[in-house]
Amino acid sequence: MEGTLERKHKLQLGGKKAASRGWNSYHAVLYRQTLCFYLDRKDTLRSSACGLPLNLMGAECSPAPEYTKKNNCFRLRLRDGSEYLLNASSRFLMKKWMMKIQAS
Ligand code: I3P
Prior knowledge:
Layout: E1 2-12, E2 16-17, E3 23-31, E4 34-38, E5 54-55, E6 60-63, E7 73-77, E8 83-87, H1 91-102
Antiparallel strand pairs: 1-2, 1-3, 1-8, 3-4, 4-5, 6-7, 7-8
């Protein structure tokens, strides 16, 4: 699955508050157990991912209803203690991403 996702880095490795916690928009691609982010869809062809891919092995993915600034937000907690909020462009896509990530 791939498509636009907004991402906010909440916690970094070990659960420490991330240094930069603003929202950014990416073209996200789910490959097996990794989630990769690209600045632009075209970058997927050049394999120029933006930052390291997120390892979904052992990750927890759940809705984030307490975060009220965005409508279709879900949480991704990785095994290394880091945590991201991801926002999809619709409720339908939010549920689809969550389902695919949980099944990965
Ligand atoms: C962050 C930015 C984020 C905000 C975050 C700020 O500042 O304003 O939008 O998250 O708040 O730290 P900066 O751009 O200087 O990094 P929210 O929109 O979720 O409030 P936070 O510290 O509560 O994560």
